[in-house]
Design a protein that fits this description.
316 residues; mainly alpha; disordered N terminus; disordered C terminus
Length: 316
């Protein structure tokens, strides 16, 4: 793995310099993403979903949650010019619910992945750099968490959290519980990957020079090691997003995620499964939307990995 040099510190009045550096980083990242065909295709589809997540409520032709007695007269009707993807068991427009449902599943998955990657990176770097008994204790704790199947661990966290958190004090409890669940579920595997990368950086000269200068462990971990494992962190994060999407949809299907009437793709499949034989469009539409997003994220991940020529998390 190539070692990236530390960037120079900005001058006190260098706000424009920082903005310019940020812009160059964004352009550099986009150039890596768009370097391969799979990356370009995945990026385009992901951007469509992100646009729907941001502007979905305004793009939806009908209200995704409200219905009245008149809507019940058109319940479970097939695709038409008025309702392109048909209606569900309450007469609500399926297209509107699919478009509006992108927001909840995307922001929960992305924030949950960010939490898991952050926790895993901190734990992995700390364990790999300090080593010794601290490393052994941390890794044995990680092994205990790895012993639990991901879905079982998620169910435990959500059920424990649901019993101890007051809904009135935390109106968005379900969403944040799913985010915390994803973070806890992803931390063990991610920490092992980051630990391996940190162990490869630890014996290099610039790290040893920082130790000889008397720099603190926190300084070395976050100023010397972290900048040089950012590519590994980025690829690991892109891999985990697809798993987060599937876990979020699975929890929604079980009724443990976003609660009705808020549209959620997993919940929509669960609510429509009993009508699968008579109105398959109500369940297949959110399922296909989920499939397209997961495939796009995987294509984007493969494109990034091919572009930077980094091994997958299973190979590290």
């Amino acid at each position: 793995m190539a070692i990236q040099e530390m960037s120079e510190q900005a001058s006190p009045g260098g706000a424009s310099t920082l903005l310019g550096a940020a812009g160059r980083s964004v352009r550099s990242g986009l150039s890596i993403v768009l370097r391969t065909n799979s990356g370009r295709i995945g990026f385009a589809i992901v951007m469509i979903h992100l646009i729907l997540a941001v502007f979905g409520p305004w793009l939806a032709p009908y209200s995704p949650t409200e219905f009245d007695s008149e809507d019940l007269k058109i319940r479970l009707t097939g695709p038409s010019t008025d309702h392109w993807l048909g209606t569900d068991q309450f007469g609500r427009d399926v297209l509107s619910r699919v478009v509006s449902g992108a927001r909840s599943i995307i922001w929960i998955s992305f924030v949950g992945t960010a939490l898991g990657i952050t926790l895993g990176t901190i734990v992995g770097m700390t364990s790999g750099y300090i080593g010794g008994k601290v490393d052994q204790i941390i890794m044995r704790g990680v092994d205990i968490l790895l012993a639990f199947p991901g879905l079982l661990l998620a169910l435990l966290v959500i059920n424990i959290g649901a019993q101890r958190i007051n809904m009135e004090l935390w109106p968005s409890k379900e969403s944040w519980l799913v985010i915390i669940t994803i973070g806890i579920a992803f931390m063990p595997n991610n920490s092992r990957v980051i630990r391996s990368a940190a162990l490869a950086i630890k014996p290099l000269e610039f790290v040893q020079s920082a130790r000889l200068r008397g720099e603190s462990s926190a300084y070395i971990i976050f100023r010397e090691i972290l900048p040089n494992i950012i590519p590994v962190v980025a690829v690991e994060a892109s891999i985990r997003v697809s798993f987060a999407l599937l876990l979020t949809a699975g929890l929604g299907f079980l009724g443990l995620g976003v609660q009705p009437p808020t549209p959620d793709w997993g919940l929509m499949v669960s609510e429509s499964r009993q009508h699968l034989s008579t109105a398959p469009w109500a369940a297949t539409s959110p399922a296909l939307a989920m499939a397209s997003l997961v495939i796009a994220v995987n294509l984007l991940t493969d494109g990034v990995r091919q572009a930077v020529r980094l091994p997958s998390s299973q190979e590290i």
